[in-house]
Amino acid sequence: MGLLSLAIWMPIAFGVLLLALGRDEQARSVRWIALIGAVASFLVTLPLYDGFKLGTAAMQFVEKTSWIERFNVNYHLGVDGISLWFVLLTAFINVVVVIAGWEVITRRVNQYMGAFLILSGLMIGVFSALDGLLFYVFFEATLIPMYLIIGIWGGPNKIYAAFKFFLYTLLGSLLMLIALIFLYTKSGGSFDLATWYKLPLGGTTQTLLFFAFFAAFAVKVPMWPVHTWLPDVHVEAPTGGSAVLAAIMLKLGAYGFLRFSMPIAPDAAREWAWLMVALSLIAVIYVGLVALVQQDMKKLVAYSSVAHMGFVTLGFFIFNDLGVSGGLVQMIAHGFVSGAMFLSIGVLYDRVHSREIASYGGVVNTMPKFTAFALFFAMANCGLPATAGFVGEWMVILGAVKFNFWIGMAAASALIFGAAYTLWMFKRVYLGPVANDDVKSLTDINGREFLMLALLAVAVLYMGIYPKPFTDVMGTSVTELLKHVAMSKLN
Amino acid sequence: MIDKLSWIAVYPEIVLLVMACVILLVDLSVKSARRNVTYVLTLLTLALVAFLSALYADAGTTLYGFGNMVVSDPMGNWLKCFAAVAVMVTLVYGRPYAADRDMLRGGEMFTLSLFALLGMFTMISGNNFLIIYMGLELLTLSSYALVALRRDNAIATEAAMKYFVLGALASGFLLYGLSMMYGATGSLDVNDVARAIATGQIKHQVLVFGLVFVVAGLAFKLGVVPFHMWIPDVYQGAPTAITLMIGGAPKLAAFAIVIRLLVEGMLPLAIDWQQMLMVLAVGSLLVGNLAAIAQTNLKRMLAFSTISQMGFVLLGLMSGVINGNTMSSADAYGSSMFYVVTYVLTTLASFGVIMLLARDGFESEEIADFAGLNQRSPLYAAVMAICLFSLAGIPPMVGFYAKLSVLQALVASGQVFHLGLAVFAVMMSLVGAFYYLRVVKVMYFDEPTNAHVVSASTDVRVVLSVNGLLVLILGLVPGGLMSLCAHAIAQMMAP
């Protein structure tokens, strides 16, 4: 069994074990098994980084066996510079989420932990699948655990959120399914991604394929104007669900653009780049402004996610090295930062049971340690230099300026909105005098919460100060991808 | 004419017939309330027959018997094997349910089921219009009696009446169509009819006139729009065990006669019947999915869901012949066969759970009755959820691959119109996802309204768990069953 298979199936195996064995009476052992499973699953992904060969764009750790003979589908896994970090990120966030749900979840603990472990395995599958159908199966299967997570452990309006999440994203993926089947037929019976990359396609066909993929990935990212599901879902999802959704699930969409849309339909991608850039800029600027007026902390961070993901798609569709690498770095950074932001809100919510900004004020007086973390993550969210948030945005803006000065200018000015909504929220929640009795009676974070925030803080700081390991890994693959996209596939 | 080979071709049917009669007699002396002896004997018979059919199918030979009246080919034998297993599973789930409802006073449920299965076998094996019709009548007459088995229950009796009247009408349609074909071609033999049509000497109008009636009759039996009216009422009204008996295995037989009559018998008329099937498919997808949203009764909802699922089967059947080219038809019909088989598998488990929840005369068929099932019984909630996700076509459940293969058959035709149909079909399955998810929501998100712990006897628990697990496992490794269906159809299509 290869490393990638291990990374996918180990958390799933632990998850199934938890589902089969756990009872709420044994919640303690359930939590420990979940933690052991999550940590072990993270540890098996480390050799991937260690053994990853730099300087080649070829797929590494490839595993390939026939899966469905009738349709020539292969169980084909592999990672390159684009996907490697997401495998590690997913496994890492999974550990943090298990820690985050430790005491908070008291009902059906085994199902909660099991769902997250299974979800993590499935998402690693999405990042490492090199076969179109295998990708689709993992991509869609993630909906089931997330639907249950939102619906069972979510807030008051959880049912609405769970349905909106499921149906909204399913709508997009079903159109992608037709595109995949079409490509299968067109390529003479193959679901292999590499074959599809080489397949010459006509202009109209490429456009249709591009928009079919767009339907699936733009909803997932989410791009303006199909982002409306995200705030609703974030608000209702439990803390862990929000963290995974923001940190990993949104990346599935952005990753899809790089893995499917751009290399399979390069001509259409170039033709419609203006639209993608326009939508991204709207996301960055307009959604940034929308975030400014939010009353609900989770909603605010959700809109901020949309804006940050706007940077990612902007970076992708300006077709230069800096832009695409910057987008990827931004994706990883956002994974850490947004995860941390949602977990911070979770820390407050567990104590006060309110997400309204107005319910807080002066938290720094009662929770100084926690506020230090919150300030750090807020700064990272604004893109302060020496935090992870800075690197990606900086690269994307540089790339955008190279592409077109005014686009770069617009994107750069959007950073101000980012700083505005994040810092304004910080000021209203944490600073000032103690606002009410709820805040007065707050207790500072315990060891568990400290551990979970510290893990993320270290990652954010490390990535901000020394991003080289990240950019090194993706460099060759990104160059190769751009070279491929620059070539016309029209026949 | 009747040589040794003929007997070999119908060996499973003979075993079934003899055993049905033996069980009928043995049951007279059975005293126990749950009819243990009859039950065990029936299961053994079914297992034996399923095993025999699988052996035949595995051998891969095609035998004709009784002067081409019957055929034993891999497609038929696999379908027979699956049908026997489906009836077996139905009886395992249905026995406690029936015992609670005073339906086991006599052993009729078992013997009628065996005769219904014999009817299905005859339909599947039939290579002659009359044999096929005979099998169909044996199946439906047994089914009418099964539905009316709870004769003191007004709803069940009403359902039986409806089923009988509409079923008789459908049989009439089919018989009328078949007699038209006989009049036009001068033969009742499926292969002779195909040859006669292929000559092109017969007036097209007459053939199509007969064809319309044949398709209408088949559509009644499959339960597709606009011939679907009986499905919701009968599904809801019949005792759940019998609903499963009607909605499970017979779908396999109905698929078989569609293949025998339309594909084997009238392939040269494909251009005509494909259009008819297309209209039926679009109507079924539309009506089935939209009407299912409004249902509060789970059995009725699943009835409408069946209608939409059959629409998918028809989509596969209507994309076999493109511009007179039969190159990809084996793939298309193979995908439909895969769809039907997996559909039956999923239906068995979902109705199994419904029966399990019903107890002591209390029916548990409203969707609201499933509230909080996850907290009362995580295992059965999981089985039901797997089935619902499978019916909705979400991977990694097997239902996804069924939809995938049908959509592939549609797209492979390369026609823009078919591509549009594929998009329509997936949009309709999005609508479908909504009502399936609603049941999952009730089971997982809502609080239980009663604390009743679901318990089941060992046989039911084991079979139901395996059944549910199979829906998932076949989704993880769908290759085997897919190839099996494809090969069976390819062999049937081979000249």
Task: Give an overview in words.
- The complex is a heterodimer of chains A (491) and B (495).
- Chain A has helices at residues 3-21, 27-43, 46-50, 84-100, 109-128, 132-141, 143-153, 158-186, 193-198, 203-220, 229-236, 239-264, 266-271, 273-292, 297-316, 321-352, 363-366, 368-382, 388-403, 405-430, 437-440, 447-465, 468-486, and strands at residues 60-68, 73-79.
- Chain A is mainly α.
- Chain A has one domain.
- Chain A has a two-stranded antiparallel sheet with strand order 1-2.
- Chain B has one domain.
- The longest helix of chain B is centred in the middle third of the chain and has 32 residues, at 154-185.
- The interface between A and B is large, with 37 and 37 residues.
Concise account of the structure shown:
The complex is a heterodimer of chains A (491) and B (495). With 491 residues, chain A is mainly alpha-helical. Chain A has helices spanning 3-21, 27-43, 46-50, 84-100, 109-128, 132-141, 143-153, 158-186, 193-198, 203-220, 229-236, 239-264, 266-271, 273-292, 297-316, 321-352, 363-366, 368-382, 388-403, 405-430, 437-440, 447-465, 468-486; strands at residues 60-68, 73-79.
Radius of gyration of chain B: 21 Å
Order of helices and strands of chain A: HHHEEHHHHHHHHHHHHHHHHHHHH
In the residues of chain A, how many domains can be counted?
1
Strand ordering within the main sheet of chain A: 1-2
Q: How helix-rich are the residues of chain A, as a percent range?
A: over 70%
Q: Give the CA-CA distance, first to last residue of chain B.
A: 24 Å
Structural class of chain A: mainly alpha
H-E order of chain B: HHHEEHHHHHHHHHHHHHHHHHH
What distance lies between the first and last C-alpha atoms of chain A, to the nearest angstrom? 41 Å
- Give the percentage of residues in beta strands of chain B: under 5%
Q: Mean of the pLDDT scores of chain B? A: 90
Percent strand of chain A equals under 5%
Chain pair sharing the greatest interface = A-B, 37 and 37 residues
The helical percent of chain B reads: over 70%
Could you report the average pLDDT of chain A, rounded to the nearest whole number?
89
- What structural class do you assign from the helix and strand content of chain B? mainly alpha
Q: What is the 3D shape of chain A?
A: globular
| Count of helix runs of chain B | 21
* Largest beta-sheet details of chain A: 2 strands, antiparallel
Unreliable segments of 5+ consecutive residues of chain A: none
